[in-house]
């Protein structure tokens, strides 16, 4: 079977024909289910120049000696698509796994292409954490010129990561340091496409130092259907 991953041989091991075929002849890169599986398999043998393929993100990466870098990515600037998540039908939450890793410090996330059962707000949680979110958002209705705002201290999620209506689903936000042992900072923008929707400028931080790999978007009410969540990593240098 091609793409057998990595095998560490010890002195005296018998090398079988299947192992020669699987690990040598048929395998140009090491194949893993996701970044976590790769980390487990290569924990004691990680070396500069190794190349791997991740099934969950369909990405090929090389190890630079300090981090896994997408093949073809430059060290100058730009965004790299890390993960694409399709939203299901009539769901109240969407979990996005394997979104963050040590490859990038900062991320941009977009939500587009779907609809909601009614006007609603998408709230953001990191991992399984449901406390410690500090936030503030500026908001306004299309129908009035008054600008409002609200805040939350030690809440269960970041509020306003996206907006839904019966004809659209939209979200555009950034996370700084979600996979570092630091507070995660959040800032975003969302503009609904209904006359009774609002425009949101949310921001905040999560007061812990957990190194997250996943996040969840949850509706304030009703459900969402269709559309795509895309996660992009900012090049570190």
Structural account:
- The protein is elongated and about 75 Å long.
- Strands 5, 6, 7, 9, 10, 11, 12, 13, 14, 15, 16 and 18 form a twelve-stranded antiparallel β-sheet that branches.
- β2 (51-54) and β3 (59-63) form a beta hairpin.
- It has two domains: 17-70, YefM-like fold (3-Layer(aba) Sandwich); 79-234, Jelly Rolls.
- It is built from two helices and 18 strands.
- With 237 residues, the protein is mainly β.
Q: How many domains?
A: 2
User: Which CATH first-tier class of the largest domain would you pick?
Assistant: Mainly Beta
Strand/helix succession? HEHEEEEEEEEEEEEEEEEE
The structural class is mainly beta
Mean pLDDT: 89
- Gyration radius, rounded: 21 Å
Multimer state: single chain
State the helix count: 2
Largest sheet: 12 strands, antiparallel
Q: Which regions are unreliable across 5 or more consecutive residues at pLDDT < 50?
A: none
| Amino-to-carboxy terminus distance | 38 Å
CATH topology of the largest domain: Jelly Rolls
Helix content: under 10%
* Overall 3D shape: elongated
CATH architecture assignment of the largest domain: Sandwich
Strand-residue fraction?
over 45%
Number of strands: 18
Architecture blueprint of SSEs:
Layout: H1 17-25, E1 30-32, H2 35-42, E2 51-54, E3 59-63, E4 68-70, E5 79-86, E6 93-96, E7 106-112, E8 115-116, E9 120-126, E10 133-141, E11 147-155, E12 158-165, E13 168-176, E14 184-191, E15 198-206, E16 215-219, E17 224-225, E18 228-234
Parallel strand pairs: 1-2
Antiparallel strand pairs: 2-3, 3-4, 5-18, 6-16, 7-13, 7-18, 8-17, 9-12, 9-16, 10-11, 10-15, 12-13, 13-14, 14-15
